[in-house]
């Protein structure tokens, strides 16, 4: 049941939804790649931080 | 490299720890009181400052901002110093932070009890307190970033990322949601109205859960869980993805609180989609926590600290699985406005936040007092008492929620509603009773902890300044080739701050801006007019007494709701509602179409004692509304504030408002004084001063109740055939 019609009247609203996905997805891939590529020694070193003090 | 000697400040950690325990007890007792009031209206004591609508915000604010708030600062001040290998930036700032925060809590409790509230859930505090909160948050920020900048460890461990994101996002949420226009020393109107106010409020409300109750505690999980288990976190890479995905997705999920309301459809859909996506990072984090303990479950059996942490993380997993489910529109259609939500919240609050806090307290206090915990056995008992408490709280509330949804939606074969609203309330009273027992058990566990920690403190000697040493941080970190670009952001707090802000701001902006742009396009309903001065005053009483904590004002487009309450709500109806009052739960029936449903005399009898008109009602009595004179001196200021916000009262109307107010009040009062039932009631109730009734607050409230939802009555009637 549709009861909010007025949005169809302002053009380009779907661009908001689409761009939000695009931005998130790109960002996510970037972060995942960053984590995956990160230097192993560095990661291990950081991971030990809570235990060193 | 020269090794530097320095001292960790344990004193500030201790202060926050004690405050967390103290306010935890206070906040939970307030919760227990309102849990009892729900089935025993007498427990409202017929007094304004003990009535449900005022104690409920005291409970929520106390447990969120006082119990968990101090818990956050306890965890951050302890772990940040150690992860940075540095004392807190400035001891004075630490103390200011502590004392002003406690002052805010006391001020909050007093003002809420006095009825000063903005009427927006979890953001109830009024404008002067909002300003102090902003200032103390800045103090906290300076202290935190100061510490990070003078650190002796080049890497920023992921816990610190969570703290930074918490800081920047809470600042953004608090400021944006608190835009309000003061009209007196302690009162203001929300800058936004209706649909926009609702969107901002739930963008805030949801993300208060995300960035106050979740991200700082995840940071604590990433520090204290490895610490207590004495092994590093399962996968640090996973924690990186967990962090970024979580903060990025969380910010979008707010509109899932507004499904099927008058909020634009696309915003609702966005809220649903991102809420479902949220399950991935949430579970990533939970599994990362639990897998940390792989092969070490024997430790969990022996160590109460780990027991608490494990159940906390498990409850986090349960709550973050349930959350996305509740965001699916068809599920939400059933659960929303029911006690299901209360159950959901308390799995998170009692399980995740409560148990995490207890675990950290059991870890920290012995450490800082340089002595073993007084009794592991008592701590284990606390663990079991707490767990039973959670179960006894949650199950009855799920059951109650399910029952409500069932009964609200049932039709007879003839096509009429099967149950009166009140029947659906009285039916679940046993669940409410059981819930309060569960809550009481949970609190008794907290008292066991208080005793245990007290004995520990007695036995130990406090290490106020804990000695540590570490080499100073080289000015230039030498990064060889491959590490460089990873380090560019990982080890730089300001970059981290900016990136976190960008990540959370994108979601906010993309959701909020279009809703505001739409303003010009909200189909202005010509018949929707500003409230009369008397109605406006009555509305402020409605807000003051927290009626929105039991009553919604939002008829969703479902067959049962339209039949029960009337035509479903339209966005255009709320354009003068500063703040909106859609509510979030229906302990009482929806009031969006209350106007004209019952005569004035009915409301008059009902508000004095709801059991006068509605047998076995659980609504509180409001006798003080019959004794208090309405404050008309403030009327012009209220009108002017509304005009500033764009409500189209004619120019100069503030000067005339009270004349109109008195005329309307007289009309209502005349009707009441001539009513035989009222005369009879007045002759036996000493609360009622019928001669002077025109001046009393109750008349304003009745005027408001009779106005709600009437603007579009007389327009074309809804057809129920097409509704789900």
Tell me what you see in this structure.
- The complex is a heterodimer of chains A (53) and B (724).
- Chain A is mostly helical.
- Chain A has two helices and no strands.
- Chain B has 724 residues and is mainly alpha-helical.
- Chain B folds into two domains: 3-471 and 483-511, Up-down Bundle (Cytochrome C Oxidase, Chain A); 533-712, Cytochrome c-like domain (Cytochrome Bc1 Complex, Chain D, domain 2).
- Helices cover 63% and strands 3% of the residues of chain B.
- The chains are: A mainly alpha (53), B mainly alpha (724).
- At the A-B interface, helix 1 and helix 2 of A face helix 2, helix 6, helix 7, helix 8 and helix 17 of B.
Question: What order do the helices and strands come in, and which of them pair?
Answer:
The complex is a heterodimer of chains A (53) and B (724).
Chain A: H1 14-37, H2 40-47
Chain B: E1 3-9, H1 10-37, H2 52-84, H3 91-113, H4 127-149, H5 158-177, E2 180-182, E3 188-190, H6 194-229, H7 236-250, H8 265-277, H9 279-291, H10 297-302, H11 304-326, H12 329-335, H13 340-368, H14 376-408, H15 421-426, H16 429-459, E4 465-471, H17 484-490, H18 493-517, H19 533-544, H20 559-565, H21 600-608, H22 624-627, H23 635-644, H24 653-673, H25 676-684, H26 697-707
Antiparallel strand pairs in B: 1-4, 2-3
Helix pairs in contact in B: 1-2, 1-3, 1-16, 2-3, 2-6, 3-4, 4-5, 5-6, 5-7, 5-18, 6-11, 6-13, 6-18, 7-9, 7-18, 9-11, 11-13, 11-14, 13-14, 13-16, 14-16, 19-26, 21-26, 23-24, 24-26
């Amino acid at each position: 049941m549709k009861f909010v019609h007025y949005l169809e009247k302002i053009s380009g609203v779907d661009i908001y939804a689409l761009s939000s996905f695009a931005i998130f997805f790109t960002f996510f891939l970037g972060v995942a790649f960053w984590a995956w590529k990160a230097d192993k020694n560095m990661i291990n070193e950081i991971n030990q931080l809570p235990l060193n003090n | 490299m020269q090794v530097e000697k320095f001292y960790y400040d344990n004193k500030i950690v201790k202060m926050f720890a004690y405050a967390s325990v103290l306010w935890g007890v206070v906040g939970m007792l307030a919760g227990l009181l309102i849990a009892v009031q729900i089935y025993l209206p007498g427990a409202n004591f017929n007094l304004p400052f003990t009535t449900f609508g005022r104690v409920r915000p005291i409970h929520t604010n106390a447990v969120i901002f006082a119990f968990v708030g101090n818990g956050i600062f306890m965890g951050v001040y302890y772990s940040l110093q150690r992860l940075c290998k540095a004392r807190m930036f400035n001891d004075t700032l630490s103390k200011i932070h502590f004392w002003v925060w406690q002052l805010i809590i006391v001020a909050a409790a007093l003002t809420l009890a006095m009825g000063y509230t903005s009427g927006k859930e979890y953001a109830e505090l009024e404008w002067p307190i909002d300003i102090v909160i902003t200032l103390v948050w800045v103090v906290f920020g300076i202290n935190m970033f100061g510490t990070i900048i003078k650190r002796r460890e080049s890497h920023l461990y992921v816990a610190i990322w969570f703290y930074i994101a918490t800081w920047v996002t809470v600042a953004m949420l608090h400021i944006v949601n608190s835009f309000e226009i003061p009209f007196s020393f302690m009162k203001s109107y929300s800058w936004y109205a209706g649909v926009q106010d609702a969107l901002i409020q739930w963008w805030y409300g949801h993300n208060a859960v995300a960035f106050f109750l979740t991200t700082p505690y995840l940071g604590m999980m990433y520090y204290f869980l490895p610490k207590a288990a004495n092994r590093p976190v399962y996968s640090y890479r996973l924690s990186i993805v967990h962090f970024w995905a979580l903060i990025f997705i969380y910010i979008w999920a707010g509109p899932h609180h507004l499904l099927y309301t008058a909020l634009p459809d696309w915003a609702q859909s966005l809220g649903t989609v991102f809420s479902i996506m949220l399950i991935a990072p949430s579970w990533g984090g939970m599994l990362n926590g639990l897998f940390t303990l792989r092969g070490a479950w024997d430790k969990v059996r022996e160590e109460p600290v780990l027991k608490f942490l494990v159940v906390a993380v498990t409850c986090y997993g349960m709550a973050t699985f349930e959350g996305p489910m509740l965001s699916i529109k068809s599920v939400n259609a059933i659960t929303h406005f029911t006690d299901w939500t209360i159950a959901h919240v308390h799995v998170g609050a009692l399980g995740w936040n409560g148990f995490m806090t207890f675990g950290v307290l059991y870890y920290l206090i012995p450490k800082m007092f340089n002595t073993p915990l007084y009794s592991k056995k008592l701590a284990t008992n606390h663990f079991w008492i707490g767990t039973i408490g959670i179960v006894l709280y949650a199950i009855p509330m799920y059951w109650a929620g399910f029952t409500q949804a069932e009964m609200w939606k049932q039709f007879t074969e003839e096509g009429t509603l099967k149950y009166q609203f009140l029947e659906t309330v009285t039916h679940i009273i046993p669940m409410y009773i059981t819930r309060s027992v569960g809550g009481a058990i949970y609190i008794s566990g907290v008292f066991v902890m208080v005793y245990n920690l007290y004995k520990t403190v007695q036995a130990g000697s406090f290490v106020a300044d804990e000695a540590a040493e570490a080499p100073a941080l080289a000015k230039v970190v030498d990064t060889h080739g491959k590490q460089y670009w990873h380090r560019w952001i990982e080890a730089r707090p300001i970059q981290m701050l900016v990136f976190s802000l960008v990540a959370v701001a994108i979601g906010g902006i993309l959701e909020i801006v279009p809703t505001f742009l739409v303003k010009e396009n909200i189909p202005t309903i010509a018949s929707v007019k500003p409230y009369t001065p008397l109605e406006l005053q009555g509305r402020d009483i409605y807000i003051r007494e927290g009626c929105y904590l039991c009553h919604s004002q939002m008829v969703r487009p479902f067959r049962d709701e339209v039949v029960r309450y009337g035509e479903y709500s339209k966005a255009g109806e709320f354009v003068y509602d500063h703040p909106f009052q859609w509510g979030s739960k229906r302990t009482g029936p929806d009031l969006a179409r209350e106007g004209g449903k019952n005569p004035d005399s009915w409301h008059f009898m009902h508000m004095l004692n709801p059991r006068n008109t509605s047998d076995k009602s659980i609504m509180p009595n409001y006798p003080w509304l019959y004794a208090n004179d309405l404050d008309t001196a403030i009327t012009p200021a209220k009108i002017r504030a509304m005009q500033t916000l764009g409500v189209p009262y004619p120019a100069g109307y503030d000067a005339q408002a009270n004349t109109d107010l008195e005329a309307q009040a007289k009309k209502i009062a005349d009707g009441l004084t001539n009513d035989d039932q009222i005369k009879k009631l007045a002759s036996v109730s000493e609360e009622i001063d019928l001669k002077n009734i025109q001046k009393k607050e109750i008349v304003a409230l009745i005027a408001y109740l009779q106005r709600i939802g009437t603007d579009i009555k007389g327009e074309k009637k809804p057809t129920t055939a097409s509704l789900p």
